[in-house]
Design brief:
With about 110 residues, this protein is mostly beta strands. Helices cover about 0% and strands about 55% of the residues. The protein is built from no helices and eleven strands. The radius of gyration is 13 Å and the shape is globular. The N and C termini lie far apart (about 40 Å). The relative contact order is 0.33. The mean pLDDT is about 95.
Length: about 110
Amino acid sequence: QVQLVESGGGLVQPGGSLRLSCAASGSILSFNVMAWYRQAPGKPRELVAAITSGGSTNYADSVKGRFTISRDNAKNTVYLQMNSLKPEDTAVYYCNLEMTSLYWGQGTQVTVSS
């Protein structure tokens, strides 16, 4: 059974930074894609950034230049470094692991407010 455990959310002022982490455990295939999604109240869940086990990345236009996704394959962990945060980044952030099936973390709240 695969489990994803997220950490690192919280309250930050506009312009601030946060780093999210997501550790995967269980039967993890060597080739996979890990990603971060987010969902704001009343809005659909959207892709923020994704990274393959080979290191290829993809970002939503709204976060390009501000967020960086990275991973440690030895630890099956993905990170999201979020800089220059804006109030519109406020959402629940979910970690996602794609192998032959999709797996989701429980979500972590990020609130950007003064």
